[in-house]
């Protein structure tokens, strides 16, 4: 698929009822009610707080792909993109039926509905489900494992979102989309099924470089068998970690959503049309590793009350307030931040930076704005 075609498909099939960052069962249930008239939609289990966990099955091909999103409840961008993909595949006018003839997709749109409702990474028992692959201590973890055992996928898509801190290499380029072909042993060997995952990632990266050049990263592949991706990879199923990251000023993750969609659609097209054997895996190693080089805001050259000149690093804290996600700026570093970048930067020009009370700013302060030379500087994303 070329970029123009992918963009056209996205614009036509974007699920407009799903917007911004707060996506829960309440948001997807009306869509599932409509979808169950045409595809297989089921409640496959319950969360800790007895919320339903849904699955969708589409296609009847021999190549089986298992996808799950919102394992971490506050990582919703890939969930939005999944419904965009579903809308696309179900539209007969797109002439993409070859994907559904070649592939069967088993999708869990929200694995952690309690975490999604509370907008937390963990489930209602404060357990990170992505560290529970071996203990299987949680109902959500047991459910995913049961689906994996019963469905017997040929490919797994582990769908996540990542913080704004990540850069694609040690650069001032944000890692808008990141991937990983997880390790399957402590030596991180490049095994046959890892090569298959790497080949698919290379294909997705190729198309993404045309729209977000130098803004794709890969994660360190240090092995952790407690992670779901590492576990499934260790059982010889090619597994791909997707991470939806930050694009300039896109704190709602609506632009990143499009890039995740493009990557998903490109991968499905590739799997449907090719026997993916991993021979073309080497392109994966052209992708730079993620680094933590960003703050949301940096105020450069600020004068302290003891006459030092420093930089001020600020991160937006995501908080669920009255059913909306709000971004609260919090000062996390006051020091020289050489080698770091801000998604937004200001120069204090060797002047003191004050909070709204007129005091010098301090680490851990939460400030909607600061004052420099009697001018208010808004820190919030607008």
Characterize the structure shown.
This protein has 382 residues and is of the alpha/beta class. It has 2 domains: 3-292, Aminopeptidase (3-Layer(aba) Sandwich); 294-378, Roll (Urease, subunit C, domain 1), CATH 2.30.40. The chain contains 9 helices and 16 strands. Helix 1 crosses helix 9 (254-273) and helix 7 packs across helix 9. The chain is globular and about 70 Å long. The mean pLDDT is 96.
Keywords:
382 residues, alpha/beta, Aminopeptidase, Urease, subunit C, domain 1, 2 domains, eight-stranded mixed beta sheet, six-stranded mixed beta sheet
Write the layout of secondary structure elements.
Elements: H1 3-13, H2 25-35, E1 40-46, E2 52-58, E3 63-68, H3 77-90, H4 97-102, E4 103-108, H5 113-118, H6 139-151, E5 155-161, E6 166-168, E7 177-180, H7 192-208, E8 216-218, H8 228-234, E9 239-244, H9 254-273, E10 290-292, E11 294-303, E12 309-321, E13 324-335, E14 341-354, E15 369-372, E16 375-378
Parallel strand pairs: 3-4, 3-5, 5-9, 7-8, 11-14
Antiparallel strand pairs: 1-2, 2-4, 6-10, 7-9, 11-12, 12-13, 14-15, 15-16
Helix pairs in contact: 1-3, 1-9, 3-9, 7-9
